[in-house]
Amino acid sequence: MRLSLIWQEASTGLRRNVSMVISVILVTFISLTFVGTAVLMQMQIGQMKNYWYDRAQVAIYLCTADSQAETCTAGAANEEQKAGVLGQLESETLAPFIDKSYFEDHQQAYDNFQQQFEGNQLAQLVAPEQLNETYWVNLKDPSQSEVLVEAFSGTPGVEEVTDQRQYLDAIFRVLNVASYTAIGIAALMLIAAVLLIATTIRLSAYSRRKEIGIMRLVGASNRFIQTPFILEGVFSAVIGSILAGGAVIAIVYFFIDGYLAPMMPFVNFVDISDAIVVVPLLLLVGMVLAALSANFAIKRYLKI
């Protein structure tokens, strides 16, 4: 099989169907950009989970004078009840699960509240005594938070035991929905790209039906006839894949590194190295889909 003849046939098909080739490039570019974005979002979610879950705390909220819980019938937690909670945290039973803990009194809670809601009218309506005194606990294994919840639920002076991971789960569910939406759109666009590539190949083959007939008469093999058409589809898809890879890198460089990262330095965002890892995946997906769809089109519809 002479490569020069195969490439000459592929080049002829590309020149004859420039508009269709451009369409394939654009559809592949858009669909693979969605694929790359979805992959980056999943990588980002994974990084955020590893970072925030390891830092998630269990909050043991003590009773205030206004608490309505059954364990708060005596009013605000007294010194004896606080000492009892601290004793449990330092006990031999719970110590193996706890990495560190600290106590936040009314004034510290009030200062943090004022800082969090600075400029909000709500901040002016709250007094220190209305905010819970809290034991904040970091666990060695955040997934074992149920141990603390069971240990302190029903304890006199304790209004509520809250695992912060439940708030993180809600955030990650929203991020996952956005990621799956991007994946769904990408899948639809990839289907459109596959159909467009197959249509382009059929039109290219139809316009060269006389040449194909001559090649058959002189004994050309099916593979020799098929290969130029497959190369047409792969060539178009590779250009679209390269553009998609460039778009993914640009999104990370300009939007994430250049805009989001400086605004939220406490978040561990994906970076250029992660984007570079995604680019070969996009190239592989584009080439494989193009080759398979082109091969199917030329076999199925021209019956070579």
UniProtKB/TrEMBL annotation:
Family under the similarity heading: Belongs to the ABC-4 integral membrane protein family. FtsX subfamily.
Claim: Translocase is one of the keywords in the record: no
Domain ABC3 transporter permease C-terminal positions: 185-300
Compartment(s) of residence: Cell membrane
Domain FtsX extracellular: 57-161
Gene Ontology cellular component list: plasma membrane
Membrane topology summary: Multi-pass membrane protein
GO biological process: cell division
UniProt-listed InterPro entries: ABC3_permease_C, FtsX, FtsX_actino, FtsX_ECD
Organism lineage: Bacteria, Bacillati, Actinomycetota, Actinomycetes, Micrococcales
Alphabetized UniProt keyword annotations: Cell cycle, Cell division, Cell membrane, Membrane, Transmembrane, Transmembrane helix
Subunit structure: Forms a membrane-associated complex with FtsE.
Listed transmembrane segments: 21-45, 177-201, 229-256, 276-298
Role according to the record: Part of the ABC transporter FtsEX involved in cellular division.
Protein name listed in UniProt: Cell division protein FtsX
